[in-house]
């Protein structure tokens, strides 16, 4: 609780820009950008700020958060809900965000199969008994491809004038680099991970030997492919309680894909119709004086486009105002040639399948029929 | 008898003490809010800004007083203090979209002040420290960092507890009871609304603007790339007898295209040189929704000189480009680096500071709502109406779903139980009245019409008019292509005018090229002082030609004019009906009178005021002012006020009132002893300004008219956009209440002299009642008489042979303001002011 706040107070003398907590989150984001994990869990997610930042990363399809305190998660969890915009233009990727209430000392099958697990400023809050369980739960049980652990570097504390014992009253310990690295190397060895050390929060010039303000260990599993088979003991029971779940609209979901395709098809049909009309009107106006030539040109432009429109061409030529009602049929093939439609459906067959029953088609199913109502205008 | 001073007093009144800080912004209307709210708060208690944040709902600063709470006008109107109800008409059983809020007996909300020693700054720390004592406080609480609300009373008035911060510091927390709030206190009302919004959020409804929507089953209208989200608008207020939740179905129209998509498709539709203007015209004033967070903004401007690569200064002082900012903050890639940026003048307040304009990237913003162009698209509106115009039974069903959701959701129920609150599961039912139908009087004839349809076009079709103006000398201008249409019009006019009593000569027929200048040249050459009216046949409904003609004929060369789009006369089966309408319209424009209803009140001048706001933001606002000139209310004086930003509308209205009185005097040789003002175009939350500023100015203006002149003044605020809906029980089902339904109980507000009238009939969907709020009244007229007069006036709009939603002077004022705002942009020539030239 309030860990970011407390730290900021202490680091007032040494000012980090951007603030240290943002640097930690950015570190994770950069890592995600580099390795493109699909399933990411944040242990000790607190007010879900990191999860909120990560939901914008387009590679991620599953996001999970875990915290021992439900109320702190609940306070801002609605930030993780889909936005109206997510419904308006569903994306290709699917995304599910789940928040769990529970302890990192307990195993729950919902945490299996992750690509990245982050523990940002978590371990120093753990009681000794929980800390003992932690490697077994995270590395042994969850066994993700990559684990990121960050924790304060106590050597830096001398530069933080306000710090008496620890940086935050809830910290149970703060390690120096040697302590953290020996714990990390030990853990990595036991569970067959490799580990590299880095950090955020550069020390001021001249004091470089104290190291980063926050030390970070990045653990990578040595034999990632064995992950699933290696699970010896799978607890059948859930130890965590789900407090929040949001499934984002995605084109992978047939319902959203169909909506998107139908909408795009209808819109494209309207564009085609309008372009045709515009062309005809401008030619009509250009050749207003010479009916013979006009007829020829119109016929020509119509023929170029499609033989389907023969009748229409005659109607236009035979007189008058280009009322919209004349164009009825827009060939599906033509619609399919538009890049957006093409991208959404992939194949022509898929297009036909998706719009069946949702769009009025000609009797042979080869064209979209547009409604022929009059444009009624009241004055 | 009083006499009018020969010229109105020129000196300005000394500044009123009650002048609000930004008056020019106060006269917004049509429910669209503009400008910072400056209504002085009269509530004893305000829920702090902190609570607004806590509410999960109201983000970004202070909430406006949308409900005009704390404006207590009834008190000052002596004769309605006891009772404000009318009496005439027959009783009707009604249901309204309201649910009673019930609380357990002796319910109260306990308000505590929380003090910390030593002082703690951070809100989260303050909460954490306080809630270490949950066993004392209980699990149900609302806390904003200094004020704590509890559903129960603690043992002592002052309780002191100690908490330890995590660095082991001891903090003394003092919990002091500051208030015991009865269920009806204003603070409680705000509190209910906050809790209710919490519930809506719990039910996974998405907040957009003020309302909540369900994103899970949207209706899609692919032809126009529209999505319609069903949702609810709701508010909890103190009504006449009880506190109720008013809930109505709301539909949010969203568009699955970004502003940039829209710009591109517009680019292909218009010529290059018109592109920027077209963008401004279509986009400015629209509400957009950002892709990356759930915020809505109004587009106030487009900056074509800027692009996403421009930089801005962040809070920490660093410079960053928009591209980088959105990439870093939201992983949003901006692909088009040449797009302009949108500017929104922020109306949110951050603390005491007004934040500056907000810059938005078109590619990252979705459009919402409808453009003017879409609204004019008949087919589209029809497609939309299928989904949004719900007939009474379906509407009632959809509203009932909200209560269903509430009752089925366990966590929502728990929250309500913990606070000791609950909602009635049935809609409010009560009794209203249907006043008797009016008789239509037309040149000695009396017509009854079927009150169910509120329309008498058939009954009066061939009857002579009260006053028919001759068409002795008139112009008919058309293009070569529309020669036949012009003849059709002429022939049909010859058919329909005799029975109306209109004397008609053949028009001077003039053929023109289909260009604006050609029309104008012909008008300049052909109009003589004897010309009665100029009729122009237009080949399309393109606005520029219409605007140019109207502008010329309303300002430089003031004569009545009638424009007809050729297409409207192209269908033989409807021609006669349309020409009949055109003939009536032309007659009104020339100063003729069509029909009247019986008006028992004598010496009364009725005034209607409405506002129009130019959608091209900030240009100007126009107020239409219309006042009756005769006893039968068939003749009207019309004038308008153009108000640019920063000007005070009311000064112009005073001038209008003075000239109207002078004209009245010319017509009647005496001054009216009563003036009744119907004021439309008042936005939510603006009532206070009206009461404290505009009404005193009217009174002031009347004083300047003559020493002994002391007419009785009534000011009635007319509101069309209300969430209230009434359903009439008939048999087993629900219908729209019939025209003439008056409601002045239950759903009115105890602190106002207000009532609802359903005056019009609708063919589909639910009828919307109009709300009337008498904010000032020295007339001593009985409520029943005010209600009846109001309903009578809804019969007097000459462009519609039927009853309309608002009193005719309001509709005339609207029509005038609209014409000036849309087409003329200047004050029309006052020579026209005694005719309905703008119909």
UniProtKB/TrEMBL annotation, chain A:
E.C. designation(s): 2.1.1.386
Enzyme kind, highest EC tier: transferase
Keywords on record: Magnesium, Metal-binding, Methyltransferase, RNA-binding, RNA-mediated gene silencing, S-adenosyl-L-methionine, Transferase
Entry GO terms, CC: cytoplasm; nucleus
Reactions catalysed, as given in the entry: small RNA 3'-end nucleotide + S-adenosyl-L-methionine = small RNA 3'-end 2'-O-methylnucleotide + S-adenosyl-L-homocysteine + H(+)
InterPro entries, A to Z: Hen1 (IPR026610), SAM-dependent_MTases_sf (IPR029063)
Recorded GO MF terms: metal ion binding; RNA binding; small RNA 2'-O-methyltransferase activity
GO annotation terms (biological process): piRNA processing; RNA methylation; siRNA processing
Gene3D superfamilies, per the entry: Vaccinia Virus protein VP39
Cofactor: Mg(2+)
Family: Belongs to the methyltransferase superfamily. HEN1 family.
UniProt name for this protein: Small RNA 2'-O-methyltransferase
Species assigned in the record: Chauna torquata (Southern screamer)
GN (gene name): Henmt1
UniProtKB/TrEMBL annotation, chain B:
Entry's family note: Belongs to the argonaute family. Piwi subfamily.
Protein name in the entry: Piwi-like protein 1
Cofactor: Mg(2+)
Pfam families referenced in this protein's UniProt entry, alphabetically: GAGE, PAZ, Piwi, Piwi_N
All residue ranges annotated as the PAZ domain in the record: 258-369
Ranges of Low complexity composition bias in the record: 13-24
Ranges where the record places region Disordered: 1-39
Gene transcribed to yield this protein: Piwil1
Lineage: Eukaryota, Metazoa, Chordata, Craniata, Vertebrata
Cellular localisation: Cytoplasm
Every Piwi domain range: 533-825
Keywords: Cytoplasm, Developmental protein, Differentiation, Endonuclease, Hydrolase, Magnesium, Meiosis, Metal-binding, Methylation, Nuclease, RNA-binding, RNA-mediated gene silencing, Translation regulation
Example of a GO MF term: hydrolase activity
The keyword Magnesium appears for this protein: yes
């Amino acid at each position: 609780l309030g860990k970011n706040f407390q730290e900021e107070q202490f680091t007032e003398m040494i000012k980090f820009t951007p603030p240290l907590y943002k640097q930690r989150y950015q570190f994770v984001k950069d890592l995600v950008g580099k390795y493109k994990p699909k399933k990411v869990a944040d242990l000790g997610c607190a007010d879900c700020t990191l999860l909120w930042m990560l939901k914008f990363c387009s590679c991620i399809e599953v996001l999970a958060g875990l915290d021992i305190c439900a109320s702190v998660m609940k306070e801002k969890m609605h930030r993780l809900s889909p936005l109206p915009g997510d419904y308006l233009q569903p994306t290709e990727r699917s995304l599910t965000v789940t928040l769990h209430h529970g302890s990192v000392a307990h195993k729950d099958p919902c945490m299996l199969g992750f690509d990245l697990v982050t523990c940002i400023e978590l371990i120093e809050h753990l009681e000794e008994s929980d800390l003992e369980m932690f490697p077994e739960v995270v590395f042994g049980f969850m066994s993700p491809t990559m684990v990121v652990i960050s924790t304060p570097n106590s050597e830096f504390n001398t530069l933080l004038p306000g710090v008496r014992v620890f940086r935050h009253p809830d910290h149970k310990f703060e390690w120096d680099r040697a302590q953290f690295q020996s714990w990390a190397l030990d853990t990595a060895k036991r569970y067959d991970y490799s580990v590299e050390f880095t950090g955020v929060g550069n020390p001021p010039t001249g004091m470089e030997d104290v190291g980063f303000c926050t030390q970070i260990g990045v653990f990578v599993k040595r034999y990632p492919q064995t992950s699933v088979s290696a699970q010896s003991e799978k607890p059948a029971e859930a130890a965590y309680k789900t407090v929040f779940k949001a499934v984002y609209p995605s084109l992978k979901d047939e319902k959203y894909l169909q909506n998107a395709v139908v909408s795009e098809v209808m819109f494209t049909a309207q564009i085609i119709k309008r372009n045709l009309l515009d062309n005809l009107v401008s030619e009509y106006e250009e050749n207003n004086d010479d009916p013979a030539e006009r007829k020829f040109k119109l016929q020509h432009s119509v023929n170029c486009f499609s033989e389907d429109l023969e009748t229409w061409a005659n109607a236009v030529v035979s007189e008058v105002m280009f009322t919209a009602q004349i164009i009825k049929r827009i060939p599906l093939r033509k619609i399919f040639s538009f890049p957006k439609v093409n991208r959404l459906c992939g194949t022509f067959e898929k297009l036909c399948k998706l719009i069946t029953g949702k769009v009025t088609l000609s009797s042979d199913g080869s064209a979209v029929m547009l409604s022929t109502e009059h444009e009624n205008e009241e004055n | 008898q009083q006499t009018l001073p020969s010229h109105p007093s020129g000196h300005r009144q000394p500044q009123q003490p009650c002048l609000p800080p930004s008056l020019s912004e106060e006269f917004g209307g049509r429910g669209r809010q503009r400008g910072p709210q400056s209504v002085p708060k009269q509530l004893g208690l305000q829920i702090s800004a902190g609570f607004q944040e806590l509410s999960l709902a109201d983000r970004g600063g202070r909430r406006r007083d949308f409900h005009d709470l704390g404006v207590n006008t009834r008190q000052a109107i002596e004769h309605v203090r006891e009772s404000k109800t009318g009496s005439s008409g027959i009783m009707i059983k009604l249901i309204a979209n309201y649910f009673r809020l019930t609380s357990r007996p002796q319910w109260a909300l306990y308000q505590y002040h929380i003090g910390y020693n030593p002082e703690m700054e951070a809100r989260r720390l303050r909460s954490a420290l306080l809630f270490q004592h949950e066993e004392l406080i209980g699990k149900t609480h609302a806390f904003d960092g200094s004020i704590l609300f509890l559903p129960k009373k603690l043992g002592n008035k002052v309780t002191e507890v100690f908490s330890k911060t995590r660095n082991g510091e001891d903090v003394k927390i003092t919990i002091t009871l500051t208030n015991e709030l009865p269920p009806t206190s204003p603070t409680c009302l705000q509190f209910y609304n906050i809790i209710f919004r919490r519930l809506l959020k719990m039910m996974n409804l998405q907040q957009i603007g003020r309302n909540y929507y369900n994103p899970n089953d949207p209706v899609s209208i692919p032809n126009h790339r529209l999505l319609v989200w069903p949702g609810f608008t709701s508010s909890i207020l103190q009504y006449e007898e009880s506190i109720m939740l008013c809930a109505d179905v709301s539909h949010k129209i969203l568009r699955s295209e970004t502003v940039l998509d829209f710009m591109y498709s517009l680019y292909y539709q218009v010529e290059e040189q018109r592109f920027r203007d077209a963008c401004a015209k279509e986009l400015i004033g629209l509400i957009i929704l950002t892709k990356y967070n759930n915020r809505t903004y109004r587009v106030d401007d487009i900056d074509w000189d800027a692009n996403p690569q421009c930089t801005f200064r962040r809070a920490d002082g660093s410079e960053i480009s928009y591209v980088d900012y959105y990439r870093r903050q939201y992983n949003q890639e901006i692909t088009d680096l040449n797009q302009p940026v949108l500017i929104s003048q922020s109306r949110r307040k951050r603390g005491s500071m007004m934040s500056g304009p907000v810059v938005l990237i078109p590619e990252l913003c979705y459009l919402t709502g409808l453009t003017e162009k879409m609204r004019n698209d008949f087919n589209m509106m029809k497609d939309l109406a299928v989904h949004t115009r719900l007939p009474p039974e379906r509407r009632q069903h959809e509203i009932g779903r909200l209560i269903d959701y509430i009752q089925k959701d366990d966590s929502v129920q728990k929250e309500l139980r913990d606070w000791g609150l609950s909602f009635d599961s049935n809609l409010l039912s009560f009794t209203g009245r249907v006043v008797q139908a009016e008789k239509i009087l037309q040149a000695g004839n009396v017509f009854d019409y079927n009150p169910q349809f509120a329309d008498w076009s058939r009954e009066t079709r061939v009857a002579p008019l009260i006053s028919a103006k001759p068409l002795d000398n008139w112009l008919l201008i058309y293009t070569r292509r529309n020669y036949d249409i012009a003849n059709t019009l002429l022939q049909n006019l010859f058919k329909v005018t005799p029975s109306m009593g209109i004397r008609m000569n053949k028009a001077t027929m003039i053929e023109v090229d289909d260009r604006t200048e050609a029309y104008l040249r012909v008008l300049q050459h052909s109009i003589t002082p004897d010309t009665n009216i100029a009729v122009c046949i237009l080949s399309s409904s393109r606005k520029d030609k219409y605007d140019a003609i109207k502008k010329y004929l309303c300002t430089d060369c003031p004569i009545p004019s009638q424009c007809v789009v050729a297409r409207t006369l192209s269908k033989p089966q409807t021609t006669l009906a349309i020409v009949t309408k055109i003939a009536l319209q032309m007659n009104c424009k020339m100063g003729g009178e069509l029909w009247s209803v019986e008006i028992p009140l004598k010496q009364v001048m009725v005034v209607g005021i409405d506002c129009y706001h130019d959608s091209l933001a900030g240009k100007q606002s126009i107020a239409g002012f219309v006042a009756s000139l005769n006893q039968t209310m068939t003749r009207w004086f019309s004038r308008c006020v153009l108000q640019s930003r920063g000007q005070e509308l009311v000064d112009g209205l005073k001038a209008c009132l003075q000239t109207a009185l002078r004209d009245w005097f010319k017509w009647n040789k005496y001054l009216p002893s009563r003036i009744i003002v119907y004021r439309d175009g008042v936005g939510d939350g603006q009532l206070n300004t009206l009461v404290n500023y505009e009404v005193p100015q009217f009174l002031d203006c009347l004083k300047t008219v003559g020493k002994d002149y002391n007419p009785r003044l009534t000011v009635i605020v007319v509101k069309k956009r209300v969430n209230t809906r009434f359903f009439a029980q008939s048999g087993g089902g629900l219908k729209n209440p019939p025209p003439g339904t008056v409601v002045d109980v239950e759903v009115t507000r105890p602190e106002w002299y207000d009532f609802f009238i359903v005056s019009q009939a609708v063919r589909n969907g639910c009828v919307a009642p109009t709300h009337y709020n008498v904010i000032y009244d020295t007339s001593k007229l009985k409520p029943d008489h005010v209600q009846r007069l109001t309903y009578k006036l809804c019969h007097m709009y000459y462009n519609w042979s039927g009853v309309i939603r608002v009193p005719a002077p309001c509709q005339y004022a609207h029509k005038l303001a609209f014409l000036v705002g849309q087409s003329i942009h200047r004050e029309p020539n006052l020579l026209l002011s005694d005719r309905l030239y703008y119909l």
